[in-house]
Design brief:
83% helix, 228 residues, mainly alpha, 0% strand
């Protein structure tokens, strides 16, 4: 297993590129010639793959935080390029959706004959369908923009949480270093105290020996003075 700090980033980037290639084939490759329901199904698959690609970008943004500073700039460039590709294909998908919806509206058979002075834009039912389709398209666009806004907010919150976790980890590491230093100081103080106690006992023994010698000398002097 590759434990390098860039391994997960490279994996997510590879998955992202595979998804982008699949999207490209559906929007700008063989899938471009599909019509009707096949085209709708392809566009639905593109939407799901765009969501997957967005998730890969989020994972890459998380992993780049742990890459060493010496090689981080080149990975930041790769991340920016991936974001640019994702934005481009999102716009392309949105444009194709709009074109496809308009084409469906234009392909709908006209009813009720030619426009009159009372109905210059055609029969009321056609206008109603057109207005309804336009409203639906605008609502879909609004929801898509809202989803993108929520995704960006979630991304910012995730980055903030990751930064807080990094700060907390640094604080824990600093506390661990401080505790290790304190343990070392305690060990040194304990060793010094043991040496002091050992010297104190040695001094007591020497003092006791000196007292014994003095007592013996006094006893000898007294003996010689009174009994000699």
């Amino acid at each position: 297993m590759d434990n390098s700090p860039t391994a997960l980033f490279d994996t997510y980037e590879q998955d992202f590129r595979q998804i982008i290639d699949s999207i490209r084939s559906k929007l700008d490759g063989d899938g471009k010639d599909e019509r009707g329901e096949q085209r709708r199904a392809a566009l639905r698959r593109v939407e799901m793959e765009l969501d997957e690609a967005d998730e890969m970008i989020s994972q890459m943004e998380i992993e780049i935080q742990g890459i060493p500073q010496s090689i981080k700039p080149q990975y930041q460039t790769r991340l920016r390029n991936a974001k640019a590709d994702l934005t481009r294909f999102k716009k392309m998908s949105k444009d194709i959706h709009t074109q496809f919806s308009r084409a469906d509206l234009l392909a709908s058979p006209a009813r009720g004959g030619t426009p009159t002075s009372d109905e210059p834009y055609g029969p009321t039912s056609d206008r109603t369908r057109l207005l309804s389709a336009t409203a639906t398209l605008e609502d879909g666009t609004r929801r898509l923009q809202e989803s993108q806004r929520v995704a960006l907010e979630t991304e910012d919150q995730g980055a903030e949480i990751l930064m807080n976790l990094r700060v907390q980890r640094e604080q824990i590491e600093n506390a661990r270093d401080t505790l290790r230093t304190a343990d070392t100081a305690i060990d040194r103080a304990s060793g010094t105290l043991k040496k002091m106690i050992r010297r104190m006992y040695q001094q007591r023994v020497v003092t006791a020996a000196i007292v014994v010698v003095l007592v013996l000398l006094i006893a000898i002097i007294i003996w010689e003075k009174f009994f000699a």
